[in-house]
């Protein structure tokens, strides 16, 4: 007997349909991972005293907040379509942390801003991994 093989070691043969807008959630989670990575680069230029780095860091902060709002909308649709709660909870927690991150950055609270930025980056990487590996159970 052959063993079905799917993404992340999960079987793709015996799974139910993906909830609506799950593709949008994968796209936003991936976009967020790239945007956060770029935020690290802009932080580096900002710390090097480059004005373009500060401008990019500020603009990317807004891009990240908007992407999180889109991710939350997609996660609500996914939840209503029978998907897991985790994507919505993660999106809401990330939004709260990112708003705090913006306030800390604007107030020059580097001692808290840098570690929180690293923590948010790790959480976004996990979100993207989960979005690409989650599969619905057989219905
Ligand atoms: C979700 C990720 C992040 C967001 C949303 C964010 C947002 C911001 C914002 C809005 C500012 C104020 C910019 C200005 O006043 O022009 C700022 C400043 C700053 N950020 Fe970030 N940031 C993030 C991640 C990071 C990371 C990972 C680092 C470093 C590794 C970093 C380093 C800095 C530094 C050094 C400043 C300057 C603070 C000052 O002027 O005293 N940020 N950030």
Would you write up a description of this structure?
- α1 packs antiparallel against α2.
- It contains four helices and no strands.
- The protein starts with 21 loop residues before the first helix and ends in a 6-residue tail after the last helix.
- The longest helix has 30 residues, at 51-80.
- The protein has helices spanning 22-47, 51-80, 86-106, 110-133.
- With 139 residues, it is mainly α.
- Helices cover 73% and strands 0% of the residues.
- It has one domain.
- The site of protoporphyrin IX containing FE has 23 residues, from α1, α2, α3 and α4.
Helix content: over 70%
Q: How many separate helices?
A: 4
Going by helix content, strand content and strand pairing, the class is mainly alpha
Bound molecules: protoporphyrin IX containing FE
Low-pLDDT sequence parts: 1-6
Order of helices and strands: HHHH
Global morphology: elongated
Distance between the termini: 23 Å
Q: What share of the residues does DSSP label as strand, in percent?
A: under 5%
C-alpha Rg, in Å? 17 Å
Q: What's the main sheet like? A: none
Tell how many strands the DSSP assignment holds. Answer: 0
Nearest-integer average pLDDT: 91
């Amino acid at each position: 007997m052959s063993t079905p093989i799917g993404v992340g070691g999960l079987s793709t043969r015996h799974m139910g349909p993906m909830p609506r807008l799950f593709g949008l959630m994968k796209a936003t989670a991936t976009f967020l991972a790239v945007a956060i990575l770029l935020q690290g680069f802009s932080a580096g230029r900002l710390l090097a005293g480059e004005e373009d780095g500060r401008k990019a860091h500020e603009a990317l902060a807004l891009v990240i907040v908007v992407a999180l709002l889109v991710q939350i909308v997609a996660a609500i649709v996914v939840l209503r379509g029978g998907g897991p709660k985790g994507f919505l909870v993660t999106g809401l927690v990330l939004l709260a942390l990112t708003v705090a991150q913006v306030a800390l950055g604007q107030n020059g609270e580097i001692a808290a801003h840098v570690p929180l930025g690293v923590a948010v980056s790790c959480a976004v990487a996990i979100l993207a991994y989960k979005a690409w590996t989650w599969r619905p159970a057989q219905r």
